[in-house]
Amino acid sequence: MLESMVGAVELGLLYALMALGVYITFRILDFPDLTVDGSFTTGGAVAAIMITHGSSPLLATICAFLCGLAAGACTGLLHAKGKINGLLAGILMMITLYSINLRIMGKPNVSLLNTDTVLSAIADNEWAYVPVLLALALAVKLALDWFLHTDAGMALRATGDNARMIRSFGANTDTTKIIGVSLSNGLVALSGALIAQDSGFADISAGVGTIVLGLASVIIGEAIFGSRNVFRATLAALLGAVAYRIIYSLALRVELLDASDLKMMTALIVVAALVVPTLRRSMKQKALARKRTQELAGASSNRGGRS
């Protein structure tokens, strides 16, 4: 039980980078980007091929991040300059990346067993693994927080809030959208590269359902930890990824569920994370309305008694 929970935390911290990427498009830009299903695999594919061909694992991981940036930039260009609907642009890029990823790997699966990776130095030390991954996730989170408080980051946030208003101030919203989508997919590809190195292989189907997993992490994190400001929102996305993997791990221990039920379980987790906060707000609003009605009724009865 303890080992499975530790494993869930480790995987959650690796997926946290992907959740931060999804947070940029989903919450900041309000952009339904399905490119992440392809760019996640791209990150793993690039890292795996470079490492197996003798490149430095660190260089391979950096290149995976850069390839994710390029994939996101293509989606942003299709949407901003090609005037293609955001959802359709993401779908088109996701389909394109499937073929590109197969070209990169040359086959559906590339093994990284018995090869040095960026995680090899701490792979055998269970006590160091989680702290190092936590430090990495926090470093990326703080770097993202810093960027979102720069002029470019503020323009990105303003574009997501009210693109028409920010255009009236002379800002180029097309550029900010391209930057945001590019950065998002860069983080997703970085997560894919690290997870491929952690699991020991890169697979062409590794990115299937990544967008749902990322949304689940963001929504669960916001439901549990809140999102009043940028610092808290990015922290919620990070912790939400860990919480999701823990819930996922606990679901695996339910005897009634088979491995084939895991996608359904993911969907149910997302539905619960979306519905529960809405129901909670609705109940609070009803309670407030009931209280006000009772107060008005009491006030009117008091006035009737005086008259």
UniProtKB/TrEMBL annotation:
Q: What is its main location?
A: membrane
Please report the record's description of how this protein sits within the membrane. Multi-pass membrane protein
Specify the taxonomic lineage.
Bacteria, Bacillati, Bacillota, Bacilli, Bacillales
UniProt-annotated location(s): Cell membrane
Could you confirm whether the keyword Cell division appears in this record?
no
Any transmembrane segments, and where? 12-29, 58-80, 87-106, 126-148, 175-195, 201-221, 233-252, 264-283
Protein name, per record: ABC transporter permease
Query: What Pfam families does the record point to?
Result: BPD_transp_2
At the top level, the lineage of the source is: Bacteria
Keyword annotations for this protein, in alphabetical order, are:
Cell membrane, Membrane, Transmembrane, Transmembrane helix
Provide the species name: Paenibacillus glycinis
